[in-house]
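Notebook, bench 3.
Goal today: get a predicted structure for Succinate dehydrogenase / fumarate reductase membrane anchor subunit from Micrococcus flavus so we can plan the truncation constructs. The sequence was checked against the plasmid map this morning, with no discrepancies at the termini. Length recorded as 158 residues. Pasting the sequence as submitted so the record is complete.
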Amino acid sequence: MSTPETTIAAPRTGRIDPKYTRGESGKGNFEMLAWLFMRVSGVILVVLVFVHIFSNLMVGDGISGIDFGFVAGKWAHPLWLFWDLALLWLAMLHGANGVRTIINDYAERDGVRFWLSMILYVATAAIIVLGTLVIFTFEPCMVDATGALLENSPAICR
Ligand code: HEM
C-alpha cells in the first residue's frame, strides 16, 4: 500500500504570503549573530545552571540551608559573584532574545510587535541593571548608627 505524497515547498522559493514579509534593509547579519548567540549561550548556561543548582541544593544543608547568611557567605568569594553575574546576564539576554524571536514570529501587526518588543527591552534592561547593582552593592555586615554590627548579621561578619 502506498502512502500519499505531500510536497512541502523548499525554503526561500518566494511563496510566502506578502503580508508576512518584512523589509530586509539595514539588518546586516544581526539575525545570524543572534542565532549563533542562542547556541553558544545555551551551552554556557548548561554549565552555569547545573553548577549553581548543585552548589546551592546538593552540597551542605541543601534547600533548608539557604538564607541571607548563605548568600552572604557565597558572595564573599569573587568566584561566586562573577558566576551569578554571568548567570544573570546570559539567562536574561538568552531569554530576551528568545522572546524577541517569538514576538517577531507571532505578532503580525506592526504596532503590537513594536510595543511588545519595547516592553521586553525595558524589562530586560531593568532586571539586568538592578540585578547587577544587587550583586555588586550587596553588604552583608550592616551596622547601626553607632557603627556596631547589627545583631542578626551572618556569622561571616564576626
Ligand atoms: C539551560 C540551558 C539552556 C539551553 C541549552 C538553551 C538552549 C536554547 C536554544 C538552542 C534555543 C534556540 C532554539 C531555536 O532557535 O529553535 C533556545 C531558545 C530559547 N530559550 Fe533557551 N536554553 C537554555 C536556557 C534558557 C533559559 C534559562 C531561558 C530563560 C531565561 C531560556 C529561554 C529561551 C527562549 C524564550 C527561547 C526561544 C524559544 C523559541 O524560539 O521558540 N533558555 N534555547
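The CA atoms of residues 141 and 157 lie 6 Å apart. The pocket of protoporphyrin IX containing FE is lined by residues 38-39, 42, 45-46, 49, 91, 94-95, 98-99, 101-102 (CB under 6 Å).
Flagging this for group meeting.
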